[in-house]
């Protein structure tokens, strides 16, 4: 199951699990759309392709909440 990380690792912007706009690699490194575009859709950590992260809504989000651990390091 995806962690649904709460923020962009590059700029720190919030990325709610129930909204589109987050991009992830196969290791779940997470970026916002502007940062993913600036990175040419390549993860700077592993070199993997950044893809749209699916959303998690309603009861699924209630039963399986998103991670609260932020990854952004200023």
Explain the overall architecture.
This protein has a single domain, classed as Herpes Virus-1, CATH 3.30.40. Helix content is 16%, strand content 11%. By secondary structure, it is of the alpha+beta class. The chain is built from two helices and three strands; from the N terminus they run E-E-H-E-H. It comes from Sphingobium indicum (strain DSM 16413 / CCM 7287 / MTCC 6362 / UT26 / NBRC 101211 / UT26S). This is DUF1272 domain-containing protein. Pfam families: DUF1272.
List keywords for this structure.
Herpes Virus-1; alpha+beta; globular; 74 residues; three-stranded antiparallel β-sheet
What's the quick description here?
This is DUF1272 domain-containing protein. The protein contains 2 helices and 3 strands, in the order ββαβα.
How is the secondary structure organized here?
Elements: E1 22-24, E2 30-32, H1 33-38, E3 51-52, H2 58-63
Antiparallel strand pairs: 1-2, 1-3
Low-confidence stretches: none
Give the overall form: globular
Report how far apart the termini are.
28 Å
Which structural category do the helix and sheet elements fall into? alpha+beta
The domain count comes to 1
Strand residues, percent: 5-15%
Radius of gyration: 12 Å
Reported CATH architecture? 2-Layer Sandwich
How many individual helices? 2
Largest sheet: 3 strands, antiparallel
Q: Give the averaged pLDDT, no decimals.
A: 96
